[in-house]
Amino acid sequence: MKVILFLPLQLLWGVGASTFKPAFITSSSIAPLSTHSKTSFRLCGIDANTNHHDLEKLSNVCTTDDTMDMLRAELKGRLLKAADDYASMRAKTDGRVLRAKEFEEQTSAEASTKEPKLVPRLLGRIVRKISRRKWKKSGDNPLSQPQGILTSESFKQMKIDVGETGNKVIELAEQLSLLNPTPNPTFGFTEYGGVAAKENKLNGQWKLRFTTASDASFAETKERGVATTSQIIDAEKGTFTNVVDFEKGKLRGFRVVVSGKPLSNTDIQLSFKSVKLLRKSRFPRLFGEITIRLPSGLIRWLATRKRPQDERNSPYLSLKYLDEDLRIHTTDSNNWFVQSRIS
Fold first, then answer.
1. How many whole angstroms from its chain centre is CA 172?
2. Which pTM was predicted?
3. Which end of the chain is more exposed for a tag (fewer CB within 10 A), N or C?
4. Higher pLDDT residue, 176 or 303?
């Protein structure tokens, strides 16, 4: 049994230009498409008396499920490509900032025994200012100050300026969300909706591909190197574990455990439980791991103290898209997350 779905006409035309071309579909063209092609179209409420002018006013097209799969595949490919472009651009930007900082430190060290010390410091600042001007002109300035793990700013999930490249990712994510194949993504999470936890598609480990949240973005530094981030979801226990690992340094990484409670078929309330710090130590059994229990009430207040009274009083996420290998969600702070499945 084929499922008839609806989507905006401009979306159908805007995706996959090589496959779909703007054209009016008349009643006489429906039969050949239906009999000779697995993918078929038909216009809603159209008969032989419908004129061309009325066709231009149509905003929806009925399309079969296999056509929707083609549209999703096309949009997913564009989205992940845009996310990779943003990650590459951000890595280059972070590298420039790191080199500018190293230059400033080097010149300061070389001139530490010389007078005046002001000259090398000014040179370093000039280099950084020139670099920043170049990034501003390009329209992409994703720089953000690193946030502390336990600061109120971190729990409020501040936004970063993702620039033109990042905005393209968000635009594609919004379009793909219209084609979400999982209308009830929270069903099965802690057996919500009477569905077994093993049936929930959120289960598994997910790699972060793109985000606008500053607390989930870690720029490369001399001390810790490159950071890798992912998330492990256990639908049976109802937990999200944010995994952050650093390339080098005394702090190997950390784990943030968050419990979730479904609020609806798309929204999950979040409650921070603990942070586990992974350290390099000569006595790993004693000092290699340090777990900090988080007071959920205090964190809830820090995250929502500036929120209007009529809004929810706890952090939450809203699932926009979910299939077997891609997940898109937003948070109560209007931050976007795009993640792909690892396992």
1. 11
2. 0.68
3. N
4. 176
